[in-house]
Design a protein that fits this description.
mainly alpha, 135 residues
């Protein structure tokens, strides 16, 4: 499943890069112009340069990182955080039901069972410590 998610990101970047609007930094201007995607309004400056270039190229960079750097343990955390921020923004701005939640739930696959177990033990210890302090 992890390789399928990687394939999704790599092919997405590949196809986007071959589109003119992605290369010239204006691709993220188009979806907000479609009323069926409208969810929450952002200020007008958000749909103008240089924000368009930042969001367009930022999307490509994060998707490329999720398709490549997520396999290397030292950079995995940063790639996943970038993906979570990207999809949180998509969820906030656009009316695309369950898209962001579905993709973000797949990020669990980037981590091994041992990594999850260590993470849960750390959080359980912190939770126990705060409960004891509160009591």
């Amino acid at each position: 499943m992890m390789y399928q998610l990687t394939l999704v990101y790599v092919t997405t970047v590949w196809h986007k890069w071959h589109g003119n609007t992605w290369r010239d930094g204006t691709a993220t201007w188009f979806p907000p112009q479609l009323m069926e995607f409208e969810k929450f309004h952002l200020p007008a400056w958000f749909d103008q340069q240089p924000m368009l270039a930042i969001t367009t190229y930022g999307t490509l960079i994060i998707e490329l990182a999720l398709g490549s750097l997520a396999f290397w343990k030292p950079t995995r955390k940063y790639a996943v955080i970038g993906g979570l921020l990207l999809h949180a923004f998509i969820e906030y701005r656009f009316n695309i039901p369950l898209f962001a939640f579905t993709i973000c739930s797949c990020y669990v696959m980037y981590y091994s069972g041992e990594e999850w177990e260590a993470w849960l033990k750390r959080w359980a210890g912190k939770f126990r410590k705060h409960r004891e302090e509160a009591a």
